[in-house]
Amino acid sequence: MRILLISGISGSGKSVALNVVEDAGFYCVDNLPPSLLPELITTLVGEGIESAAMAIDSRSAHLLTSLPDTISALRQDRHEVKILFLTASTESLVARFSETRRSHPLSHRLQRNVGTDRLSLTECIQEEREMVAEIQALAHVIDTSNLSANKLREWVKDIIQIQHAPLTLMFESFAFKIGVPLDADFVFDVRMLPNPYYDLELRALTGRDEPVVTYLKSQDMALDLYEDIRKFIEKWLPLFKKDNRSYLTVAIGCTGGQHRSVFMVEHLASYFRDKEQVLVRHRRLEQIHH
Protein backbone atom coordinates (compact mmCIF):
# COMPACT_ATOMS: atom_id res chain seq x y z
CA MET A 1 0.00 0.00 0.00
CA ARG A 2 1.04 3.58 -0.61
CA ILE A 3 1.00 5.44 2.71
CA LEU A 4 1.50 9.17 3.26
CA LEU A 5 1.83 10.45 6.82
CA ILE A 6 1.16 14.17 7.16
CA SER A 7 2.46 15.95 10.23
CA GLY A 8 3.74 19.34 11.24
CA ILE A 9 3.22 22.43 13.31
CA SER A 10 -0.31 23.63 14.02
CA GLY A 11 -1.25 26.42 11.63
CA SER A 12 1.28 25.40 8.97
CA GLY A 13 -1.28 24.04 6.48
CA LYS A 14 -1.85 20.37 7.35
CA SER A 15 -5.58 20.63 6.62
CA VAL A 16 -4.83 22.08 3.18
CA ALA A 17 -2.42 19.23 2.46
CA LEU A 18 -4.84 16.56 3.66
CA ASN A 19 -7.61 17.97 1.44
CA VAL A 20 -5.30 17.88 -1.60
CA VAL A 21 -4.41 14.26 -0.91
CA GLU A 22 -8.05 13.30 -0.42
CA ASP A 23 -8.96 14.94 -3.73
CA ALA A 24 -6.23 12.81 -5.33
CA GLY A 25 -8.06 9.64 -4.28
CA PHE A 26 -6.31 8.76 -1.02
CA TYR A 27 -8.29 7.32 1.88
CA CYS A 28 -7.70 9.97 4.56
CA VAL A 29 -7.82 9.96 8.36
CA ASP A 30 -7.18 13.02 10.52
CA ASN A 31 -5.57 12.93 13.98
CA LEU A 32 -4.87 9.21 13.98
CA PRO A 33 -3.16 7.88 17.14
CA PRO A 34 0.09 6.27 15.86
CA SER A 35 -0.60 3.06 17.81
CA LEU A 36 -3.65 2.44 15.61
CA LEU A 37 -1.76 2.81 12.34
CA PRO A 38 -0.82 -0.89 11.79
CA GLU A 39 -4.35 -2.06 12.51
CA LEU A 40 -5.83 0.54 10.17
CA ILE A 41 -3.45 -0.39 7.36
CA THR A 42 -4.32 -4.06 7.73
CA THR A 43 -8.02 -3.19 7.49
CA LEU A 44 -7.58 -0.96 4.45
CA VAL A 45 -5.47 -3.55 2.63
CA GLY A 46 -8.22 -6.10 3.28
CA GLU A 47 -10.72 -3.73 1.69
CA GLY A 48 -8.56 -3.30 -1.41
CA ILE A 49 -7.56 0.31 -0.76
CA GLU A 50 -4.21 1.10 -2.40
CA SER A 51 -3.45 4.65 -1.16
CA ALA A 52 -4.02 6.14 2.29
CA ALA A 53 -3.00 9.31 4.11
CA MET A 54 -3.06 9.98 7.84
CA ALA A 55 -2.54 13.24 9.71
CA ILE A 56 -0.49 12.63 12.86
CA ASP A 57 0.57 15.56 15.02
CA SER A 58 0.99 16.96 18.52
CA ARG A 59 -2.61 16.17 19.44
CA SER A 60 -1.30 12.62 19.91
CA ALA A 61 2.03 13.78 21.32
CA HIS A 62 2.23 11.18 24.08
CA LEU A 63 1.98 8.41 21.47
CA LEU A 64 4.56 9.71 19.00
CA THR A 65 7.57 7.88 20.44
CA SER A 66 6.46 4.61 18.85
CA LEU A 67 6.02 6.09 15.38
CA PRO A 68 9.57 5.48 14.00
CA ASP A 69 9.36 1.78 14.87
CA THR A 70 5.88 1.57 13.36
CA ILE A 71 7.12 3.13 10.12
CA SER A 72 10.05 0.68 9.94
CA ALA A 73 7.69 -2.26 10.45
CA LEU A 74 5.36 -1.04 7.69
CA ARG A 75 8.28 -0.70 5.29
CA GLN A 76 9.45 -4.19 6.13
CA ASP A 77 5.98 -5.36 5.14
CA ARG A 78 6.67 -3.78 1.71
CA HIS A 79 4.42 -0.78 2.16
CA GLU A 80 5.61 2.47 0.55
CA VAL A 81 5.67 4.96 3.42
CA LYS A 82 6.43 8.67 3.00
CA ILE A 83 6.22 11.43 5.57
CA LEU A 84 5.34 15.03 4.81
CA PHE A 85 6.04 17.60 7.52
CA LEU A 86 4.75 21.17 7.31
CA THR A 87 6.32 23.97 9.29
CA ALA A 88 6.51 27.77 9.29
CA SER A 89 8.30 30.54 11.11
CA THR A 90 6.93 31.47 14.51
CA GLU A 91 6.16 34.94 13.20
CA SER A 92 4.03 33.50 10.38
CA LEU A 93 2.22 31.12 12.73
CA VAL A 94 1.39 33.87 15.22
CA ALA A 95 -0.04 35.99 12.39
CA ARG A 96 -2.20 33.09 11.15
CA PHE A 97 -3.62 32.33 14.59
CA SER A 98 -4.35 36.03 15.07
CA GLU A 99 -6.15 36.25 11.72
CA THR A 100 -8.36 33.23 12.41
CA ARG A 101 -8.78 34.08 16.11
CA ARG A 102 -8.23 30.44 16.97
CA SER A 103 -6.36 29.24 20.01
CA HIS A 104 -3.43 26.88 19.68
CA PRO A 105 -4.48 23.20 20.07
CA LEU A 106 -2.06 22.80 22.98
CA SER A 107 -3.09 25.94 24.84
CA HIS A 108 -5.68 24.10 26.94
CA ARG A 109 -3.39 21.16 27.68
CA LEU A 110 -0.14 22.83 28.62
CA GLN A 111 0.37 24.87 31.79
CA ARG A 112 3.31 26.61 33.32
CA ASN A 113 5.33 24.78 35.94
CA VAL A 114 4.20 27.32 38.49
CA GLY A 115 0.61 28.45 38.74
CA THR A 116 -2.32 27.59 36.51
CA ASP A 117 -1.91 30.08 33.64
CA ARG A 118 -1.87 28.61 30.18
CA LEU A 119 1.22 29.08 28.02
CA SER A 120 1.35 31.95 25.55
CA LEU A 121 0.90 31.26 21.84
CA THR A 122 4.63 31.58 21.20
CA GLU A 123 5.40 29.19 24.05
CA CYS A 124 2.88 26.65 22.71
CA ILE A 125 4.50 26.80 19.29
CA GLN A 126 7.94 26.17 20.79
CA GLU A 127 6.65 23.27 22.89
CA GLU A 128 5.03 21.76 19.82
CA ARG A 129 8.25 22.02 17.81
CA GLU A 130 10.01 19.97 20.48
CA MET A 131 7.19 17.39 20.58
CA VAL A 132 7.30 16.66 16.85
CA ALA A 133 11.05 17.11 16.26
CA GLU A 134 11.58 13.37 15.87
CA ILE A 135 8.94 13.13 13.15
CA GLN A 136 10.40 16.13 11.35
CA ALA A 137 13.79 14.41 11.23
CA LEU A 138 12.23 11.52 9.28
CA ALA A 139 10.18 13.61 6.86
CA HIS A 140 10.24 15.75 3.79
CA VAL A 141 9.75 19.25 5.18
CA ILE A 142 7.86 22.11 3.54
CA ASP A 143 8.29 25.59 4.99
CA THR A 144 4.95 27.32 4.37
CA SER A 145 6.08 30.73 5.64
CA ASN A 146 5.02 33.36 3.06
CA LEU A 147 3.52 30.57 0.94
CA SER A 148 0.01 30.92 -0.47
CA ALA A 149 -2.53 28.13 0.00
CA ASN A 150 -2.68 27.63 -3.77
CA LYS A 151 1.08 27.23 -4.01
CA LEU A 152 1.07 24.76 -1.10
CA ARG A 153 -1.58 22.73 -2.90
CA GLU A 154 0.60 22.68 -6.01
CA TRP A 155 3.67 21.54 -4.08
CA VAL A 156 1.75 18.76 -2.32
CA LYS A 157 0.42 17.58 -5.69
CA ASP A 158 4.00 17.39 -6.98
CA ILE A 159 4.98 15.23 -4.02
CA ILE A 160 2.13 12.73 -4.24
CA GLN A 161 2.71 12.26 -7.97
CA ILE A 162 6.15 10.82 -7.22
CA GLN A 163 6.01 7.06 -6.87
CA HIS A 164 8.63 4.41 -6.18
CA ALA A 165 11.59 6.83 -6.27
CA PRO A 166 14.22 5.89 -3.65
CA LEU A 167 15.08 9.57 -3.15
CA THR A 168 13.79 12.85 -4.52
CA LEU A 169 16.29 15.69 -4.92
CA MET A 170 14.64 19.05 -4.27
CA PHE A 171 16.26 22.26 -5.49
CA GLU A 172 14.82 25.55 -4.29
CA SER A 173 15.88 29.16 -4.74
CA PHE A 174 15.18 31.80 -2.11
CA ALA A 175 15.89 35.40 -1.10
CA PHE A 176 18.20 36.01 1.84
CA LYS A 177 16.42 39.32 2.44
CA ILE A 178 13.31 37.32 3.34
CA GLY A 179 15.06 34.51 5.21
CA VAL A 180 16.54 31.05 4.86
CA PRO A 181 13.78 28.44 4.34
CA LEU A 182 13.24 26.09 7.26
CA ASP A 183 12.99 23.02 5.00
CA ALA A 184 16.57 23.15 3.67
CA ASP A 185 18.98 20.27 4.25
CA PHE A 186 21.83 22.16 2.55
CA VAL A 187 22.08 25.92 2.00
CA PHE A 188 24.40 27.51 -0.56
CA ASP A 189 24.97 31.26 -0.79
CA VAL A 190 25.53 32.67 -4.31
CA ARG A 191 25.49 36.36 -3.37
CA MET A 192 29.18 36.70 -4.24
CA LEU A 193 28.34 36.35 -7.94
CA PRO A 194 27.83 39.46 -10.11
CA ASN A 195 24.22 40.60 -9.71
CA PRO A 196 22.14 41.01 -12.92
CA TYR A 197 19.82 43.28 -10.92
CA TYR A 198 22.23 46.16 -11.49
CA ASP A 199 21.92 45.84 -15.26
CA LEU A 200 18.74 47.76 -16.14
CA GLU A 201 18.10 45.50 -19.14
CA LEU A 202 18.16 42.42 -16.91
CA ARG A 203 16.54 43.76 -13.75
CA ALA A 204 12.96 42.77 -14.59
CA LEU A 205 13.97 39.32 -15.85
CA THR A 206 14.70 36.14 -13.87
CA GLY A 207 17.37 33.47 -13.78
CA ARG A 208 15.24 31.41 -16.17
CA ASP A 209 15.38 34.03 -18.94
CA GLU A 210 18.01 33.59 -21.64
CA PRO A 211 19.64 37.05 -21.32
CA VAL A 212 20.27 36.45 -17.61
CA VAL A 213 21.50 32.90 -18.30
CA THR A 214 23.90 34.19 -20.96
CA TYR A 215 25.15 36.91 -18.62
CA LEU A 216 25.87 34.53 -15.72
CA LYS A 217 27.39 31.85 -17.94
CA SER A 218 29.88 34.47 -19.10
CA GLN A 219 31.13 34.78 -15.51
CA ASP A 220 33.85 32.24 -14.74
CA MET A 221 33.10 32.37 -11.02
CA ALA A 222 29.47 31.42 -11.65
CA LEU A 223 30.55 28.34 -13.60
CA ASP A 224 33.15 27.44 -10.97
CA LEU A 225 30.59 27.72 -8.18
CA TYR A 226 28.13 25.59 -10.14
CA GLU A 227 30.78 22.89 -10.52
CA ASP A 228 31.67 23.00 -6.81
CA ILE A 229 28.03 22.62 -5.72
CA ARG A 230 27.38 19.90 -8.30
CA LYS A 231 30.39 17.87 -7.18
CA PHE A 232 29.44 18.26 -3.51
CA ILE A 233 25.93 16.93 -4.10
CA GLU A 234 27.17 14.12 -6.33
CA LYS A 235 29.70 13.03 -3.71
CA TRP A 236 27.34 12.89 -0.74
CA LEU A 237 24.03 11.92 -2.34
CA PRO A 238 24.74 8.14 -2.25
CA LEU A 239 25.12 8.28 1.54
CA PHE A 240 21.72 9.93 1.92
CA LYS A 241 20.22 7.15 -0.16
CA LYS A 242 21.85 4.54 2.09
CA ASP A 243 20.35 6.36 5.08
CA ASN A 244 16.88 5.69 3.60
CA ARG A 245 16.15 9.36 3.09
CA SER A 246 13.15 9.98 0.81
CA TYR A 247 13.97 13.62 0.11
CA LEU A 248 17.01 15.88 0.10
CA THR A 249 16.39 19.64 -0.18
CA VAL A 250 19.16 21.87 -1.52
CA ALA A 251 18.39 25.57 -1.03
CA ILE A 252 20.31 28.21 -2.97
CA GLY A 253 19.97 31.85 -2.03
CA CYS A 254 20.85 35.25 -3.38
CA THR A 255 19.78 38.68 -2.19
CA GLY A 256 16.44 38.92 -3.98
CA GLY A 257 15.86 35.31 -5.03
CA GLN A 258 15.22 36.35 -8.63
CA HIS A 259 18.37 36.02 -10.71
CA ARG A 260 21.48 34.23 -9.42
CA SER A 261 19.83 31.63 -7.19
CA VAL A 262 17.20 30.83 -9.83
CA PHE A 263 19.92 30.40 -12.48
CA MET A 264 21.89 28.05 -10.24
CA VAL A 265 18.86 25.96 -9.27
CA GLU A 266 17.74 25.54 -12.88
CA HIS A 267 21.17 24.40 -14.04
CA LEU A 268 21.74 21.99 -11.18
CA ALA A 269 18.27 20.54 -11.69
CA SER A 270 18.94 20.12 -15.40
CA TYR A 271 22.11 18.15 -14.67
CA PHE A 272 20.65 15.86 -12.00
CA ARG A 273 17.31 15.31 -13.73
CA ASP A 274 18.89 12.66 -15.97
CA LYS A 275 20.06 10.71 -12.92
CA GLU A 276 17.59 11.37 -10.09
CA GLN A 277 13.98 12.21 -9.35
CA VAL A 278 14.12 16.04 -9.22
CA LEU A 279 11.70 18.76 -8.13
CA VAL A 280 12.30 22.51 -8.49
CA ARG A 281 10.90 25.36 -6.41
CA HIS A 282 11.49 29.10 -6.71
CA ARG A 283 10.21 30.64 -3.50
CA ARG A 284 10.64 34.33 -4.34
CA LEU A 285 9.37 34.04 -7.91
CA GLU A 286 6.24 32.31 -6.68
CA GLN A 287 5.65 35.07 -4.12
CA ILE A 288 6.10 37.76 -6.78
CA HIS A 289 3.73 36.05 -9.20
CA HIS A 290 1.05 35.71 -6.55
UniProtKB/TrEMBL annotation:
Question: Which Pfam family, an example, fits this chain?
Answer: PapZ_C
RapZ-like N-terminal domain: from which residue to which, for each copy? 1-160
Q: Which residues form the RapZ C-terminal domain?
A: 168-285
**InterPro entries (alphabetical):** P-loop_NTPase, RapZ-like, RapZ-like_N, RapZ_C
Name the domain of life: Bacteria
Keywords, A to Z?
ATP-binding, GTP-binding, Nucleotide-binding
Quote the record's binding site residues for GTP. 57-60
Sequence positions that bind ATP: 8-15
MF-aspect GO terms: ATP binding; GTP binding
HAMAP family, per this entry? Answer: RapZ_like (MF_00636)
Q: What is this protein called?
A: Nucleotide-binding protein
Q: What is the lineage of its organism?
A: Bacteria, Pseudomonadati, Pseudomonadota, Betaproteobacteria, Burkholderiales
